[in-house]
Q: What sequence folds into this?
């Protein structure tokens, strides 16, 4: 689809959208950023490799070879720009540049894990940018303590993720995967699909978290005539809540057993890590379907695999794992009734163009000593954004 | 999900919904039906086999073993009820009963092909019921000429099919299938998915046909912020059209080249058979995605396979084939970038309960010599319903 759109036009248009979200304040960046701002910078980008696909689509800017489409712009200003997918261990390309890089750009799809140790080693580091949403690959407390700024391209792929979640809800509810297997293996056994295929209509769908993505999902679920529940720290503003027809559940554990389908839309924090453990899963409805495009570590890996094997969870779909890339022997690859993929939902071509534009915008501001759009900050002046506290 | 609902309760509730749609007229059935009405009937149901899945779900009424859940009721009134999946050729169970059956029930999922020849042999035949929607497996002109009544359970699975279409639109747009393959084969290659994964937002979706299913699909697509086009014989009533934000395209061939995604929602008739042939496909946007849950024979089978191989069609998904069951060597099983399944979208557990209730309702009326809900008729008093003319 639309393979021939020029990347530059779309980056410009996405960029202006993102810029328009920004606060107009231009106060100076404090702490380590300020100290180090100005002059030629060493910027390292860690992305997934494009390989044979790199040149297949001019808008495929999210891979190593695409490098977010900012190489020419960076180099024309005298900055050094290194891109790699080699991120693990002391011999990795990333590790080699840790001591003298100024800016590290990474993505949730192929995360550069930024530990306290790496932060300590990175004496010139000013800025950690996430091309996308979700900065849990960074030790945020260590980053805050070191006076670093961490920012993401908030909003850049919320629509992409919400759409993907709805796809996964339908894939599980309608039991798509066994049907697809039959198609490609020469089989035809309608009963093997139909005995556990359902309409979405009339079912109860609960989202754990109703932030930007959760709200977009609820909007898209509205015409399906489902019973919509949501749990969050905050209640949705009354007008939107009414429009969505969604019911607020203050107590997570009161909501979960009501749900035929549960969708995870909360960031990974110390509070949500391992939230779905064996005990909590045992209290869910037998036959529950779970969609998780948030973060793999919100689930207890083995507890999910066991509940899929026992049938307590009737279907599990998501694109997030821990760690990433998922090892070949990750149990979610082999458990029954799953519809897993690698981490992809936030890196559609459309999303790549938006987060590439957002990264460029923030770099530009950083070089000028200007503030970022307020909602992009994850760590600012030693403080974590509220969703990570 | 919801595996423990009692079948009987749901059938009752679905039945009353369907009854409420009926016209209140109760004029007598004319021609062969009238002649043969009254007395003990031989009813044959042709469904897909449940096999090991038959007893896995008490609501799985759509298989041979489930027999629509009407055996006890029929037999208690002295009728004979034969169910089978064996429908092809002169030695089949169906063929054996053709000479003396009064009522034939079949489904689009495992269609009993009712040819002019079979109609000629079926001297006692009064009524042909489709458990579901779509009666193109019947030679409707021959049925009309023979004075038979043909009826379906209109509305019974429109929601089921519309939901499934939206799933397939997302599966193709987001490039789900290669990601799933990676998950199960131990691979991790985000680029292999992302280089051709898109958001649905902002794309142009056109439906060929905007009847009951097409309208439900448009409603569900609305919050995705897409450009919605539709072609049909009839324009949607202005208020609904405005609510959907869909644009009417009187000329099919003017609409098709505008679409990033085309969805087929038209019955199979002599006008739509082979509608998407090599020439028409060649005029579509390069990289178009096609979803077809309507009927396989609306497409030229080989032309679709060739266009998927060349990349002109970037993705094709549907649950309908010709013939059904699809033979092991059907080219759609092996063409690139497909997301095919056996014919399943209209036979979710929820749909089965609704069409089982609708069939029971029509049998009850037939035995009493009462009319069916008007919208259920496909052939009535020698006349074809308008969508089949």
A:
């Amino acid at each position: 689809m639309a393979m021939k759109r020029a990347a530059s036009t779309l980056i410009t248009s996405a960029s202006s959208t993102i810029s328009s979200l920004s606060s107009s304040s231009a106060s100076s960046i404090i702490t380590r950023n300020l100290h180090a701002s100005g002059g030629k910078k060493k910027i390292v980008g860690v992305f997934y490799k494009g390989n044979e696909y790199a040149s297949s689509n001019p808008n495929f800017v999210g891979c190593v070879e695409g490098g977010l489409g900012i190489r020419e712009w960076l180099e024309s200003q005298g900055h050094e720009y290194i891109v790699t997918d080699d991120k693990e261990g002391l011999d990795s390309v990333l590790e080699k540049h840790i001591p003298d890089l100024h800016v590290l750009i990474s993505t949730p799809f192929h995360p550069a894990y930024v530990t306290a140790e790496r932060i300590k080693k990175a004496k010139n580091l000013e800025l950690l940018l996430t091309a996308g949403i979700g900065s849990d690959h960074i030790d945020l407390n260590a980053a805050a303590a070191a006076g670093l700024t961490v920012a993401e391209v908030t909003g850049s792929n919320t629509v992409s993720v919400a759409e993907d979640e709805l796809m996964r809800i339908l894939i599980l509810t309608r039991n798509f995967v066994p049907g697809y297997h039959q198609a490609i293996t020469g089989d035809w056994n309608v009963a093997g699909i139909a005995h556990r295929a359902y309409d979405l209509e009339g079912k109860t769908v609960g989202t754990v978290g109703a932030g930007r993505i959760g709200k977009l999902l609820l909007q898209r679920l509205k015409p399906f005539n489902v019973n919509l529940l949501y749990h969050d720290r905050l209640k949705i503003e009354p007008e939107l809540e009414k429009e969505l027809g969604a019911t607020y559940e203050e107590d997570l554990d009161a909501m979960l057993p009501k749900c035929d389908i549960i969708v995870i839309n909360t960031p990974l924090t110390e509070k949500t890590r391992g939230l779905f453990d064996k005990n909590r899963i045992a209290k869910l409805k037998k036959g529950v379907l779970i969609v998780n495009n948030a973060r793999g570590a919100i689930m207890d890996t083995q507890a999910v695999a066991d509940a899929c094997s026992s049938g307590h969870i009737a279907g599990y779909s998501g694109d997030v794992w821990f760690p990433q890339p998922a090892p070949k022997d990750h149990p979610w690859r082999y458990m029954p009734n799953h519809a897993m993929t690698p981490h992809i939902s936030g890196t559609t071509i459309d999303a790549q163009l938006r987060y590439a534009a957002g990264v460029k915008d923030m770099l530009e501001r950083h070089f000028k000593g200007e503030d970022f759009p307020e909602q992009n900050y994850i760590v600012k002046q030693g403080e974590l954004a509220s969703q990570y506290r």
